[in-house]
Structure formats: structure tokens, C-alpha cells
Here is the input.
Amino acid sequence: MALMFPCRLGHAAACFLLLVILSCAGPAAATRPAPAHGWHSFKRLQDARRGSRVTGLGELKRYLATFGYMPAGAGAEHSGEPTDAFDEHLEAAVKRYQSRLSLPVTGSLDAATLNQIMSPRCGVEDDHGVSGVVSRFTLLKGKPKWTQRSEPIVLSYAVSPTATVSYLRHDNVSAVFRRAFDRWALVIPVSFVETDDYDAADIKVGFYKGSHGDGGSFDGPLGVLAHALPKNGRLHLDASEQWALSLGDGTATTSESIDLESVAMHEIGHVLGLGHSTSPHVVMYPSIKALQKRADLTVDDVQGVQMLYGPNPNFRLSSLHNPSMAPERTSWVVFSARLLVSAVLVILVTHL
Ligand SMILES: *[C@@H]1O[C@H](CO)[C@@H](O)[C@H](O)[C@H]1NC(C)=O
Ligand SMILES: [Zn+2]
Ligand SMILES: [Zn+2]
Here is the structure.
């Protein structure tokens, strides 16, 4: 079973780990109060803009560094600790964040932006480079993908028998992942088989608390929900969340329940090599709210994964229900602009 990983992924992963280590285990970590439940302390930053100085902006800089929006040292003074000053580095990072998450790009911490920042999300950073004008999916840095000598590719997965949460049965979690893997398998020539041999499985699913040995640290309820490391097939879920097996099936929920099936779909996307999409309606968008369900693949997700693995010959794109299919104005603007430029060129050429 061969897995191709150009070394750039290694660098990206190392950077990500370094950022996490810097932000979680820096010398100030011991003295800093523990971050409030799910980033809700950021609420007091509302309406901060360039020139503001508000307690908590330093923490926001750390957040933006963790998810790939600013270099870890930017916005810091001599101590190396990010300051509470809203400087030009922070403004640039906020604009990048807004653009990535498809929010109005204002550069200030308006209500919509803060609401998005405080939403639970995936622990994988967003900085995966840009895709085309129309498509909004991205591939992970270095374009990692699974390869095997013979097609179709068969990947094994296992749900850890020990890294579990007490209130969920192993067979129920396993059934959720079965459904999620089946959805991805429908669109690409890759199949997934469950195995009991956790150590030998290509994809290893488990629930963990806090820092758990891979550099990516979980943070209690809400905040970071999960992460996946395609390089070694690890798919980790934060054991502190209130996981709902599948929202809408009548299982008990609280106002903070997170849909396991939606998060499983998203993290499998990373295991396959996809990065975060900028479209808020698709599986690969980086954040999801409590009680929200987003487990159906959309055209954007499918086009992304098919770019890596090609299509499953039995699958028709037109069979998908599709929120991201709404006509995109920008693409028409670009198209019309191109048409205009061509027309001008033709006129110039024919009249000179
Ligand atoms: C969990 O699995 C058991 C046995 O497979 C099944 O009877 C039960 O309905 C499942 N529960 C949920 C909430 O899916
Ligand atoms: Zn993600
Ligand atoms: Zn992990």
C-alpha cells in the first residue's frame, strides 16, 4: 500500500504543528487564563478595528496564526507575545479570513465575522492555496493522495476500540463512519473496508482529549472539533464534544450537540487530500454550528475529490442535490469581461 507524499506536505504539517505548539505550549501558556469555552471570550472584541486596543486581541492573533492567517510572530512586540493592538498585520489577517470564509471583507471585527470566528470548527488550517475562479474547493498543500498499484483503490479503516467516548456505543459510531465512507466511495473509484486491526488500518478513527501525541491539541467543548492528518490516516475527534450520532434520527441532543456524521464526512475529505472550501454550504467548509447537519456531498466537494481520484464511472454529478450550483455572478462577470477583451482585440487587429 503506497502513499505518495511530496515533501511539501511534510513542511506544511510541521508548520501547523509548530504553530499549535507555539500557541499551546509557549512560556506564557501557564500564566494565561484558559481560553473561555469555545472562543466565546472573543465576543468582547466586537467592532474592534485598526487602531483599537482591546484585551483579547492578542488571543485572536494566536487564533488566526493557528489556522494559517498570520505568521506566529506577526503583531508581537519584543517579548514575542502577540499584543492587544489592532495593527496592520491583524487587519490583513482579518481580511484574509473574511475572504476565505466568504464574509464581507471589511477588515474589522464586525458581528458576522466574530460570530464566524466563535463557531466550532475543524482544527486543520485553512491556508491551502487557491483553486479556480469558479470552483471553491482546495487541495491540501503538496496535493497528497492515496495511490495503489492496482485500481480501484481499497483503503481499510478502523474505529479505535480504546479511544472512545463513554456515551457512544462502538457499533453505532462504526455505523456512522460506514455511511460516511460509503458517500465518498459513491463518487470516486475508491472503496473503504472496515477492519478490526486498528494498528494495521490505513485510516484510524478515534476520540481524544487535549493534546494526544500528534501535536494537534483539542480544547474542550466546541472550539476545535476534530482534525485529520492524511499523511498517516489519523482521523481524530475531540472527546469533549457532545456528539450526536446523526442529527435528525431522534437521538438525544443538547443545544451544543455536534453532528458526528457531518464531521466524519468533512474529516474523511481531508484524509483523501481535500483542503477547506470557501463555500459555506459544502462539506469541506471549515466550520459547522451546533445542531447543524451538512453530511451530503455537493458538486464542489465532488469536483474537488474527483480532481484527485477521477470519477466513479457509476456516478452522475447531476444526481446531487446542490446548494453550490446556484449561478455565480462573479463567473458571469469574468466571462463577460473576457468577451469584451476579445471583442476589443478583434477590432484592434482588424483595424490596424
Ligand atoms: C446502536 O446500535 C444498536 C445495535 O446495532 C441499534 O439497535 C441501535 O438502534 C443503535 N442506536 C442508534 C442511536 O443508532
Ligand atoms: Zn477541516
Ligand atoms: Zn490528533
The pocket of 2-acetamido-2-deoxy-beta-D-glucopyranose (ligand 1) is lined by residues 169, 171-172, 245, 251 (CB under 6 Å). Residues 325-352 form one domain. The helical segments are 7-25, 57-66, 88-100, 111-118, 170-185, 260-272, 299-309, 329-351. Residues 329-351 form the longest helix (23 residues).
